[in-house]
Amino acid sequence: MPKPQPVQTTDEIYLTELFAILWKGKYLIFLITLVTIILSSVYLRNSVRTYSVEAVFKPVVEASGGPNLSGLSGLASLAGVSLPTSNSSDFLTYQKLLFSEEIAQRVFANAGLVIKLFKGEWNSELGLFEAPETGKISEIKQLVRSVVTGVEKRKYIPPNAKRLSLLMEKKLKLSMEGNGFLLISTETSKPDIMIKLILNASQETDDLLKERFFSTAEETLEFYYQKLVASRSPEHREALAKLISAEDQKLMLATNKTNFVAEPLTNPSVSLYPTSPKASLFLMLGAVLGLSIGVAVVLVGHAITKPRAE
Questions:
Q1: This prediction's pTM
Q2: What span, in angstroms and rounded, lies between the C-alpha atoms of 204 and 93?
Q3: CB count, 10 Å around CB of 299?
Q4: 143-167 pLDDT per residue, tens
Q5: Which one in 52, 62, 134, 195 has a CA-CA gap of 20 to 30 Å to 77?
Q6: Quick one: which H or E segment has residue 54?
Q7: Which residues contact 58 (CB under 8 A, 6 or more apart)?
Q8: Cα–Cα distance between 85 and 95 in angstroms, integer?
Q9: pLDDT tens digits for 214-268?
């Protein structure tokens, strides 16, 4: 009795036919994949490499052995005074001020740095900033935007403190590390310029806080001394003495050290290799895209040329 032949399923027939179609068009698939890899390579060769820049700052309070003022809030209130601003809160103020327009105004005094930051708008022949030339595509986009939204073309504003502040806020990223250090990081194609910007802005912020402290330090100490002379309670006098000691040490810190609130922990670092674009990933995606397009072209071509059943 003859053995029954295994029944070939419809799925197996379709897969076999599909494989045969793709194998027949293998050269076209290979050619399209090769073209996409070449285009990816051309893009990579002409793309701008960006690097990661990181700068770590620590609060100067760690370097000052100021007296412990915990528990003195009540005594200070009874004495009619308030506790002096602590370095920890100064460090928070430092972070808030870093990208402010007030700091940007001070950084803007560094003309060489500003020219490098807005290089595309600087006319070296005339020695001034002017609106960069826009291409046809940009003009078309602006026209469409005006028609759709009714918003007219924005008037060109040369670089100023406001624009510099917005640039710093956009380009630089702040993050607090678990150990209390402040990390300022950015991705840029011009790491040297961004390092100068970070260091300049951080130093100007520190200097501004130091100037603000100096402007009120003498009045604060004089006020504490007056309260100390007038006080008759030993507890009040002890609280005032510690407040004066804290303010004196803060004044000494501001006088003797270059940095008042924050100082660099290490020199700013730049990544050894570009962080973007990632060449291997980009080439792999190009190959996958080319393979997908090649398969689609072969299948569509087969469906078009396949003779119809009568």
A1: 0.72
A2: 13
A3: 14
A4: 777 777 766 777 889 999 999 999 9
A5: 62
A6: strand 51-59
A7: 180, 181, 182, 262, 263, 265
A8: 16
A9: 877 777 767 766 777 777 777 777 776 777 777 666 676 667 667 888 999 988 9
